[in-house]
From TrEMBL:
<feature type="coiled-coil region">
    <location>
        <begin position="479"/>
        <end position="513"/>
    </location>
</feature>
<dbReference type="InterPro" id="IPR011989">
    <property type="entry name" value="ARM-like"/>
</dbReference>
<feature type="domain" description="Beta-catenin-like protein 1 N-terminal">
    <location>
        <begin position="86"/>
        <end position="192"/>
    </location>
</feature>
<keyword id="KW-0597">Phosphoprotein</keyword>
<dbReference type="InterPro" id="IPR039678">
    <property type="entry name" value="CTNNBL1"/>
</dbReference>
<keyword id="KW-0677">Repeat</keyword>
<feature type="compositionally biased region" description="Basic and acidic residues">
    <location>
        <begin position="16"/>
        <end position="27"/>
    </location>
</feature>
<feature type="compositionally biased region" description="Acidic residues">
    <location>
        <begin position="58"/>
        <end position="75"/>
    </location>
</feature>
<feature type="region of interest" description="Disordered">
    <location>
        <begin position="1"/>
        <end position="81"/>
    </location>
</feature>
<dbReference type="InterPro" id="IPR016024">
    <property type="entry name" value="ARM-type_fold"/>
</dbReference>
<dbReference type="GO" id="GO:0005681">
    <property type="term" value="C:spliceosomal complex"/>
</dbReference>
<dbReference type="Pfam" id="PF08216">
    <property type="entry name" value="CTNNBL"/>
</dbReference>
<keyword id="KW-0539">Nucleus</keyword>
<keyword id="KW-0175">Coiled coil</keyword>
<protein>
    <submittedName>
        <fullName>DUF1716-domain-containing protein</fullName>
    </submittedName>
</protein>
<dbReference type="InterPro" id="IPR013180">
    <property type="entry name" value="CTNNBL1_N"/>
</dbReference>
Length: 529
């Protein structure tokens, strides 16, 4: 600019110097360099001379008046616009890309090779400076900033998924995964974020291209490096928390492929980390992994994970008032009655059975369940109801208020509910006898006989006799009533005792729960003598 132009009007006001501009925080990470031909200070133009208003050819009325806004300087600092030079260039790039013209680089093979070459150079340069000046971070921080920026440039590759195959052939997938081992966690997090963008479900790509990229990432040991970084991140730091989030996003993206999901389950450290951290973010990944292949589900069965999930469900069942909700649906919903009873049945037999049984009594569940038991003709509902009553008699503490209230239900109205149990017992005994009489001479006769008895209602018969045995043991009046009811069918307490002995003989007492059940059955059998 001609210096004389700054003073072309004799009456122009003097310009004050611009305040020292604030350094862009994004540029602190880099050391800026001025070219020989550039000037470090912004240049300003003079105001328009007021005498111009008297010219024969005045400026257009639509023109802007007043001093011109100072441009961004060459160090990337910002003034009136509120954005840095780098951010301005990014916005210009996006605008030109949207317009479909300009000097925007075309996302083709040439662009990819150029980008990959720059990335490899910066990786090598940073590694060299780090090893040479290990104890002098100021010597390699500039190269690290350049590397950080170049990694982020790879996000454009997500818009050109047809280049994934060439990206892999150039060895860049392995280089990108290798950055997960970088000493600077910010670099590792950037690499993880880019991997997440490239493998995201929203990326429009052919399955073959996606498989090629993911296969190369997996072969470069991506899974184990992700787990290593999950252990290395300090979640008290916001940046590291973002790293955990991006890592989980990558895992979720990869698990959409069945073969990869199976491979992920072979990473013991990954499964341990997910199970320890099971929350809203991690649980979908576990759900995908277990649904992806039967062998994944089998790995979680029978071990501490299965027990953990059961305990978690029961804890949340109590916390979320699941007992109360089940009782409401049993009482008011016809469609949900049976599923709610089954859920309550399983809950009363679990590790939180004592608390759930107590909650049933406290929530008015005795009236709901006993009324339904006394009136229903739907045999699908009888089984869960009998199982709930049996569990309550087994788990409610002796002499507790809840147990006394339960026993009172069997006694009220002249043992009405006890009489209903005796009727059930009679029907089940007859059905079991018919099933036993139909036996044939076969090698597997005992197995088929047991199967026919189960189909005829042997399980419900066992539940009924366990409940009757508890009543005989707990209440003298109930014992007399039960003996009287059995005598009407030419039976006695020995019939109940035989059923309990058969059940005891079938138990596998090697398991802890079965051993406890066996002890209970043995005690009840003694009371029936």
């Amino acid at each position: 600019m001609d210096v004389d132009d700054l003073f072309k009007a004799s009456g122009s006001i003097s310009k004050r110097k611009l305040d020292q501009p604030i350094r862009d925080p994004n540029e602190i990470y880099k050391a800026s360099k001025l070219s020989d031909s550039s000037h470090p200070h912004a240049q300003a133009e003079d105001d328009v001379d007021n005498n111009n208003t008297n010219n024969d050819n005045p400026a257009d009325d639509d023109g802007d008046f007043g001093p011109e806004l100072p441009p961004d300087d060459e160090e990337g600092r910002f003034f009136g616009g509120g954005i840095s030079k780098q951010e301005s260039e990014i916005l210009d790039f996006v605008d030109k890309a949207d317009a479909g013209g300009g000097d925007v680089d075309k996302l083709d093979s040439a662009w990819l090779r150029k980008t990959v070459l720059n990335l490899e150079k910066l990786i090598n340069k940073n590694a060299e400076l780090r090893s040479r000046y290990e104890d002098q971070p100021n010597k390699f921080i500039d190269s690290e900033a350049d590397l950080d920026a170049e990694i982020k440039n790879l996000s454009l590759l997500a818009e050109a998924s047809h280049l994934y195959g060439e990206f892999v052939k150039l060895g860049s997938a392995a280089s990108l995964v290798g950055l997960l081992t970088h000493e600077n966690t910010d670099i590792a997090i950037d690499a993880i974020e880019i991997i997440g963008e490239l493998t995201d479900d929203d990326v429009v790509t052919e399955t073959e291209q996606w498989d090629t990229l993911v296969g190369a990432l997996i072969e470069s040991d991506l899974l184990s490096l992700l787990v290593s970084n999950l252990s290395r991140f300090n979640e008290d730091d916001e940046s590291d928390r973002n790293g955990v989030y991006h890592s989980l996003s990558v895992l979720e993206n990869l698990s959409s492929q069945k073969a990869v999901a199976t491979r992920m389950c072979e990473e013991d450290d990954l499964l341990k980390w997910l199970l320890q951290r099971i929350q809203r973010t991690e649980s979908p990944i576990l759900a995908i992994l277990t649904a992806a292949a039967p062998e994944n589900r089998e790995k979680l069965l029978g071990g501490p994970e299965e027990e953990f999930v059961e305990n978690l469900f029961e804890a949340k069942f109590l916390e979320a008032e699941g007992t109360e909700l089940c009782l409401i649906m049993i009482k008011e919903s016809k469609m949900a009655k049976h599923p709610s009873l089954r859920l309550l049945d399983h809950a009363t037999a679990g590790t939180a059975s004592v608390e759930i049984c107590q909650r049933i009594v406290e929530s008015g569940g005795l009236k709901t369940t006993f009324t339904l038991f006394n009136k229903t003709k739907d045999q699908r509902l009888v089984g869960p109801l009998l199982s709930i009553f049996s569990s309550m008699l087994r788990f409610l503490p002796a002499d507790s208020a809840e147990r006394i209230r339960l026993l009172a239900k069997f006694v009220e109205k002249e043992y009405e509910k006890t009489a209903r149990l005796a009727v059930e017992e009679e029907h089940r005994q007859e059905a079991a006898a018919r099933a036993g009489g139909a036996e044939e001479e076969e090698e597997d006769r005992e197995i088929q006989l047991l199967s026919r008895k189960m189909d005829a209602g042997l399980f419900n018969l066992q539940l009924v006799d366990v409940i009757l045995a508890w009543l005989v043991a707990e209440d003298g009046g109930a014992r007399q009533k039960i003996q009287k009811l059995l005598a009407e069918t030419d039976d006695d307490l020995k019939a109940i005792q035989r059923t309990l002995k058969e059940q005891l003989a079938e138990l596998d007492t090697s398991e802890e729960d079965s051993k406890d059940l066996g002890d209970m059955l043995g005690t009840l059998i003694d009371f029936l003598d």
